[in-house]
Amino acid sequence: MTRKKAMTSEKASYVKRKGHADAREFAECLGIGKEYRSEPQAKKDVIDLEGHSYSVKSGKKKWQIFLYGRTRFEKDYTFRGMNGVGELFLQCIESFPASRNDYLKNKGLYKMSLQKPMRELCRRLKEKRLLAAFLDKSMFNSGEVDFLVVKEKNIFHVFWSREVVEVFINNYEVENSKARGKNQVDDQKVIFKVAGKTHGDIEMRNDSEIHYREVKFWLDKKLTYNLLNSQIRS
């Protein structure tokens, strides 16, 4: 079994700097120059002179859409209002003990307790209405971001956020993960698939003291770009 490696702080810092550089480059393509506005907390990497906002994605393999802990789901009214989705994220977090050392002593027990909320989260996100609300919130801060920008082979491709969500909900197959190895446990993730290929998932981060009891949502860059490019004219 191949063990997944956690991203080092140096790699994370590089990815962040690269993201900022790509946002600046896109802003310059719009004729804004280096003095462009942004609101990173609201997913707005670039705001143009007319007030339109853009979420700029590059990366080689994956996009981290969010990495949130307990406080985010407790205080964010949109997640809390999503027919129990926010509460289910809190239940996923609370499936693990406050101390990571306690978790490491009995990983199997706590992974078993994660199964129930992950199964219910999967069931909820099979509903197109809730899936659309979740994706729109996660990627575009509930409609506040107008466009998704994907940098592919040094070309910026611009997709309208509403069309992005529509493509996703019309193509995603939502299911729980299944154990593939001896020490793995079923139903630890919610997976988004298209034609049998995993495009992304929702999972728990428990791999370090820094990222413990956090919910991560990621998407595969290449598969996502290919899907959007095949169905939307950028």
- Please tell me how large the radius of gyration is: 18 Å
Helix content: 40-55%
- How many helices? 9
The best one-word shape is: globular
Note the run of SSEs as H and E.
HEEEEHHHHHHEEHEEEEH
Strand content: 15-25%
Uncertain segments are 1-5
Q: What's the number of structural domains?
A: 1
SS content category? alpha+beta
Describe the structure.
This protein is an alpha+beta fold. It has nine helices and ten strands. It has one domain. The protein is 43% helix and 24% strand. The strands form two sheets. The protein has a five-stranded mixed beta sheet with strand order 1-2-3-5-6, sandwiched between helices. The chain starts with 8 loop residues before the first helix and ends with a helix.
Brief overview:
The chain is built from 9 helices and 10 strands.
Layout of strands and helices, then pairs:
Layout: H1 9-29, E1 37-39, E2 44-47, E3 53-57, E4 62-68, H2 70-75, H3 77-80, H4 85-94, H5 100-105, H6 107-125, H7 128-140, E5 147-152, E6 155-160, H8 161-171, E7 173-176, E8 190-194, E9 197-205, E10 214-220, H9 221-231
Parallel strand pairs: 3-5
Antiparallel strand pairs: 1-2, 2-3, 4-10, 5-6, 7-8, 8-9, 9-10
